Amino acid sequence: MGIMTKELGIDLGTSNIRIYAKGRGIVLDEPSVVAINKITSEVLAVGKEAKEMLGRTPDNIIAVKPLKDGVIADFMGTKMLVQTLISKVVPKTLFQKLRLVVSVPCGITDVEERAVEGVLYKVGAKDVYLMEESMAAAIGAGLKVKRPEGCMIVDIGAGTSEIAVLSLEGIVVSNSIRLGGDKLDKDIIDYIRVNFNVIISETEAEEIKKQIGSVTETMTEEKMNVKGRNLTTGLPNTITVTSKDIKNAMQDSIDVIIKAIKSVLEQTPPELSSDIMEQGITLSGGCAQINNIDMYISDKIGIPVHIAQSPLECVAKGVGTALEVIEVLKKAVKTRKNR
User: Fold this and answer.
1) Which residues contact 297 (CB under 8 A, 6 or more apart)?
2) How far apart are the first and last CA of the chain?
3) C-alpha–C-alpha distance, residues 52 and 262, integer Å
């Protein structure tokens, strides 16, 4: 059902796309997956429906994630995905009048930035504003970014981890690393292949991470049965993995994120550092939900860490807030008119 709005905020995530409609809040949340018929180039499914096809399609159908590490890896796939999802929210007749605020990673290059704008203008948007993901996440998490004091956000998404210190509506220090939930899933796949001689799917790895993933030793070890293919026999196989296995699998990548957080703290002006020591660090993004990640980070860097309310929705809420007060947030937003 389309809604009569011409202003949308889009969290263009590697694993999910969330659309925020002005005055309505988040109106759509779908996986960033598109299924295409290779022969006719026709879109067969997008979002949830397409995600269910991952790894299960015949030769003539391809299910792809067109966004990788927070940027566009497949231009046409992204265009088809965004176009179809926007049309679920807005009637096609309004496409030419669309004003969009879209989140992009801090470390994005000019070429990648132009690709995002290119896709949205191809879809038919009139104005496109790009907003740095860490700013969007901080606003969506309810941090007081307008004040003359430091606040720190760590947004661990599927493709990137965005770390930033903000003050007076601006980003003072930031770091964006192309490592997030997708890399953790890959770590789990690799670990199971090496230690159990079994290959599992990305979907299965993501499920394990959600169910029993933890970054610290847990009081009671959780177990989960996992289906995969035995590499020696080639036959289906069920194995049992524990939360300790998953902790070991993810350890190195989590430590890379901590190193990036430390590096941002080292570059932070002392006045703002003392604010952060006092306020703590806010965690957002899908990986903020991994068991004990807040405690682990806090333990490693000696600063309190809080998980944002609805961590998955922070970026979408942030771009949505920017829509409501676009004039005020001009500083935080990069804009180019449709050329």
Assistant:
1) 154, 257, 258, 261, 281, 283, 305
2) 30
3) 38
Predicted pLDDT of residue 4? 58
**Distance, CA of 136 to CA of 114 (rounded, Å):** 19
CB neighbourhood size of 38 (10 A): 12
215-237 b/e with 16+ CB inside 10 Å = b? beeeeeeeebebebeeeeeeeeb
Tell me what percent of the residues of the chain surpass a pLDDT of 70.
94
Phi, psi of 110 (to 5 degrees): -60, -40
pTM of the model: 0.91
Q: Is the dihedral of CA 137, 141, 146, 147 positive or negative?
A: negative
Residue 172 parent element (H or E): strand 170-177
- Written out in words, the top-level CATH class of the domain with range 181-249 is alpha beta
Mean pLDDT of the chain: 91
Q: Is 194 exposed, middle or buried (0-12, 13-18, 19+ CB in 10 A)?
A: exposed
Q: What's the confidence (pLDDT) of residue 219?
A: 79
Q: Which CATH number fits domain 136-179+250-312: 3.30.420.40, 3.50.50.60, 1.10.10.10, 3.30.450.40?
A: 3.30.420.40
Q: Which CATH class, in words, describes the domain spanning 7-132+314-337?
A: alpha beta
